[in-house]
Amino acid sequence: MAVPITSLQTLQTERLRLRQWHAQDLPAFAALNADPEVMRYFQATLSRAESDAIALRCQSLIEERGWGFWAVEERSSGAFAGMVGLHTPDAALPCSPCVEVGWRLARAHWGKGYASEAAAASLRFAFTTLGLEEVVSFTALQNLRSQAVMQRLGMRRDEATFQHPALPEGHWLAEHCLFRINEANMKF
Q1: In a domain, 79, yes or no
Q2: Range of 179's domain?
Q3: Which terminus of the chain is more exposed, N or C, with fewer CB under 10 A?
Q4: Do the Cβ atoms of 88 and 99 come closer than 8 Å?
Q5: Using 50, 70 and 90 to split pLDDT, how confident is the model at 72?
């Protein structure tokens, strides 16, 4: 399992910076969390208070262990694009205990390859700095865009699906697929 590291980590790619959260990120993060299209494969859009709570939790976890779901900004413009990074899920999943790679970007930043680019940087960090043997990602079966990102990263889908324990039985998003990757399978 991943262990804390001694300093806050900032990751950079050719176009992106994955960094600690700032107060000025909160309005843009709230806007993307209130966007029905961005939140299509989540139970609901989020209020400003709910969105702020997630950002502050992400910030706290990064302060505590040096990594997590980082705020993502474009290096060229400094524009906030969303969040990407690593997380240890609380829910009892078929792969628990585990570290997941995940992303949530504002719609204005879709279709640019940012999710793949930032997730690949997160995976490199997971394998080279944290020394993880495996990282997972999961999503509702209907979320084909996220599954495409997982495939581009070199992640391999488990044959079996699972019912996400945080969703009510029978919910249209409850059935999830699970993808896994180790360092040898990375495509980036």
Answers
A1: yes
A2: 11-185
A3: N
A4: yes
A5: very high
- Give the pLDDT confidence of 169-183 residue by residue, as tens digits: 999 999 999 999 999
The tally of domains found in the chain comes to: 1
Number of H helices and E strands in the chain, helices first, is 4, 9
Query: Dihedral (C-alpha) 29, 30, 33, 35: value to the nearest 10 degrees?
Result: -110
What pLDDT, on a 0 to 100 scale, did the predictor assign at position 4?
54
Fill in the amino acid letter for 48. Answer: R
CA atoms within 13 A on the CB side of 185: 16
Residue 29: C-alpha distances to residues 20, 76, 81, 121, 176 (Å): 13, 19, 8, 21, 25
Q: What is the mean pLDDT of residues 11-28?
A: 97
Q: Are strands 80-87 and 175-181 parallel, antiparallel or unpaired?
A: unpaired
Instruction: With cut-offs at 50, 70 and 90, classify the pLDDT of residue 9.
Output: confident
The number of residues in the chain equals 188
- Using alpha carbons, select from 107, 111, 184 the residue that is nearest to residue 153: 184
Residue 137 maps to a domain = yes
Q: Is this model's pTM higher than 0.85 or not?
A: yes
